[in-house]
Amino acid sequence: MPIEGGVCGLLLAGGQSRRMGGGDKCLQMLGGNTLLARVIDCARPQVDELILNANGDPSRFSQFGLPVISDAIDGFAGPLAGVLTGLEWARDNRPACNWVASFACDAPFAPSDLVSRLSDVIKNQNGDLACATSNDRDQPVFGLWPVALAEDLRAAIVNEGIRKVDVWTARYRLVRAAWSVDPVDPFLNVNRPEDLDTAELVLASRT
User: Fold this and answer.
1) 0.90 exceeded by pTM
2) CA-angle at 16, arms to 155 and 195, nearest 5°
């Protein structure tokens, strides 16, 4: 099916960051900027609207000037809850946006062509939704999701207890766009303090 309508960007920061010791992982500094600022710079030019999915006090993100939307479902239900939050927000607030493109806030080197390539693969392969891949692995939190599936996703989470992204996406025609990991995996994510050290080395190699 052709991709029609606008795209709302969804920055996923709703996790509890246990492996980073708690707190807001996306506010960790990398090369003088927060991880979140770097992802915002990547995502903003690719979408018509940009929102941040994060739980707790939204004022801690006030410097970024984005709508901060907490999970539509209580209990830290994982990235699917974040996706649902984005789909329902777009449906209720931006009816011109038929799609939501999701970005993880702990991936500071995310590709600048994410939305265009996911859109192309949906069109070219007649997909229902799309995700990125690298190194032969799905990157399910980097996806392009139709707002029309909001009700189906809510039912899957609430009524069936589904939490894993791949369990839910298996119900649809999921298509994939692959990115090279040479010289670096663009989906390198910062989960632990040592990952931040690795990201610093990557950043230094680019300057």
Assistant:
1) yes
2) 120
